[in-house]
Structure prediction request, 665 residues.
Amino acid sequence: MSNQANTLFDKVWDAHVVRKIADGPDVFFIDRHFIHEVTSPVAFLGLESRNIGVMYPERTFATADHNTPTINQHLPVADPLSANQLKALETNSLKYGISHWGLGHARNGIVHVVGPENGITLPGMTIVCGDSHTSTHGAFGAIAFGIGTSEVEMVLSSQCIMQPKPKKMRVNVVGELGKGVTPKDVTLYIISKLTTAGATGYFVEYAGEVFEKMSMEGRMTVCNMSIEMGARGGMIAPDETTFAYINGRDQAPKGEKWDKALAYWKTLKTDEGAVFDKEYTFDAADIEPMITYGTNPGMGQGISRNIPTSEQVEGGKSTYDKSLAYMGFHENESMLGKKIDYVFIGSCTNGRIEDFRAFASIVKGRKKADNVTAWVVPGSHIVEAQIKEEGILDILTEAGFELRQPGCSACLAMNDDKIPAGKYAVSTSNRNFEGRQGPGARTLLASPLVAAAAAVTGVVTDPRDLL
Amino acid sequence: MAYDKFTLLRSTAVPLPIENVDTDQIIPARFLKATKREGFGDNLFRDWRYNGDNTPKADFVLNNPIYKGKILVGGHNFGSGSSREHAAWAIYDYGFRCVVSSFFADIFKGNSLNIGILPVQVSPEFLDKIFLAIEADPNAEFEVNLEKQTITIVSSGESESFDINGYKKHNMINGFDDIDYLQAMKGEIKEFEAERIY
Prediction:
């Protein structure tokens, strides 16, 4: 293999194959395993029924996020089913010696936010979690992807899963992003071009100037949404930006270990001449602030455009009509000026400090619109502390917003944060599926800037008009 | 989890000709709060199947008694979105053993194979033929032969072959799962682990 030009993906993948099975999947070694309360309890039951243990408990990290309330976290969780799942996570972690950041722990938060911010996520690793947005960690040049509960059980019991190697795709975005265009817009744009199935079967590497200049937080937003175009995951080659982000974080390597790791990380890039199974190139200048109008993340467009007609989109007309009917929208309408009811800033896509800085940049000196209920939810306690320290909380409070406590919140609405049926929410999360944010909820996915512009005007607004 | 062996399935089918059926539709997030794998079939397609007051929606296919069987036939890009295995559990628990589509999302496909549901990917043309056959006769039978990797419309005899990884096929035919395999190679995994830089 050494004489051959390899992709970043090949380098990391091939380094983790324990055994190749003829006409079968690879036995694939996992460096880091994240678990949360929803997709792990049945896996632990499986271990018990087979009477086997956890092979490397130090490689698994547990955090509570999906079911957690975002107010009064000091009180017992009211929903007995949620409380039961949280308790199961705690009990199982304790029983098997897995480190557990439960509700109230200083490092608790959304799994894909706390991994990177605590230096648990590192370049060249393989990382899995029973959550499709595990692709977030690819921002560090790791192979990271979501798995099912059967696979959670596999990792707990053997630190491996059985995985056929995906094909490789490279998505290049060249040039410079315009004013008010954020990483969220970049990813919504790519998904709108490739569709929700466009990258199924592939692992994506993002390359080009736009990603080279992007912050780690922005890269995480992009990799986070790779799953929304069907990709198993997305990754970006680690560089000085990556190393600077990791250096000094709580669990990051230090001293000699840092030097050794850094030397390895610098080899993690796609070689000149390496071949991808598919490659796309987009021009940054074509990307506007984006918004979705339909019921999957691929149904998005530049905010100033009109909703396409069924003739302009791929796929069946009946499916398209069903989608617009659910949203209460019509073909060829403008999105600008549409009245909204809720705004949600948070989630593993946009719940990091940079997202709240962006949100506050528009909110500053303005007031929350009266018709809008806003849920401002940090991705972790560390982000919450940063929001307070940096004076962002003051800006939000003066404008009439309240800060809630960390968790997945309205992204999937497993807790009480549900958008009521028929109401419109501009959401910085990752999915606008029917009922995703509550039964009957209507979700418009957008960047923190678009969310802020909607929060202060009460309608869909181009954030460039407010910058 | 052990599952039933899968060799040959002959059954009527339930048509769901909608594209991009995501796992949030198959099982909405609010039904993921159990700590045991049971009862998920009751909430399969919950929000498409029931009104807000829990009365069945007459126009949804699972509420139409003329459609039944162990085969669910979905539109293109079936199972996109969340990785929740609960979606596959709900389909299995409801009684389906096979899902047919012209395209499956990766994680859903993997989850299905891991719990004993066979995802059969056919060409868009053959998928249309299946939908037409069900439309013409709700009692139309289909035969899925895992050994031969074929799906057949019994009435017309039209058949198409489908792909499946050889290892997974062997597992499904024998009702084996991956954990048995991995447990048997722990020594090799230990040696591998010892060489990791982190």
